């Protein structure tokens, strides 16, 4: 067997997700509102559950409620429901104590887009 290391530099363009990716890098939430049924997806879906592919970009608050959470060697993650969205998302949870259930989207620490939720100071479950 011959070992050979091969480097293939490439860039991955966001394409139709550009508004979502640009907002995410700033800690903001851009969802897609279906033109047919009005469902709002965040993270955005190219095709709505109703089957329509027509949608407009809408700005969401970035606030979310943690529904489920899991802890692992690479961090804490949660299934969350973003305010104004009809779907759910998996996000990294940063700084969440076990009793905290509400958070807001924050900008990732690097240029790589990521869904990261930090605790909200206004509301939590006692």
From TrEMBL:
Boundaries of every ChsH2 rubredoxin-like zinc ribbon domain copy: 22-53
One matching Pfam family: zf-ChsH2
Highest taxon of source: Bacteria
Lineage of source species: Bacteria, Pseudomonadati, Pseudomonadota, Alphaproteobacteria, Hyphomicrobiales
Protein name stated in the entry: Zinc ribbon domain-containing protein
SUPFAM superfamilies the UniProt entry points to: Nucleic acid-binding proteins
